[in-house]
Amino acid sequence: MEIVSMGLVIIGVTIVLAGTIFFLIESFRASVWWGLACLLLFPVQLVFLIRYWGAAKHPFLIQMLGILCILAGPILAGYDALPVVW
Fold first, then answer.
1. What is the pTM (predicted TM-score) of this model?
2. φ, ψ of residue 32 in degrees (nearest 5)
3. Residue 13: CB partners within 8 Å, gap ≥ 6?
4. Which of 62, 75, 71 is nearest to 15 (CA)?
């Protein structure tokens, strides 16, 4: 089960990275200034997400899917380590 949980974490990190790159591509499509600001300053990403929800919705949801996979990995590993009381 540890291999499966580690695999979920690795897949989740890869998905988050892909979503982040996709988010930056969308911010650069809106404007070079938006792209640079999103690349350098995290709070600007939140402003961009709210202001350009239509363009940023899919990259954001991809990132949330990756975070879900990252969180599911340790949960599965911890569930496997619980003692069975019968």
1. 0.86
2. -65, -35
3. 66, 70
4. 62
pLDDT tens for 63-74 read 999 999 999 988
- Residue among 49, 65, 57, 60 nearest 13 (CA): 65
Q: Which amino acid is at 3?
A: I
Residues 29, 82: Cα–Cα separation, whole Å: 48
- Tokens for 56? 């940023």
For the four alpha carbons of 44, 49, 54 and 59, in that order, the dihedral sign comes to positive
Q: What is the DSSP string of 53-79?
A: HHHHHHHHHHHHHHHHHHHHHHHHHHH
Q: Would you tell me how many other CB atoms lie within 10 Å of the CB of residue 65?
A: 16
Provide the residue ranges of all domains of the chain, joining segments of one domain with +: 2-81
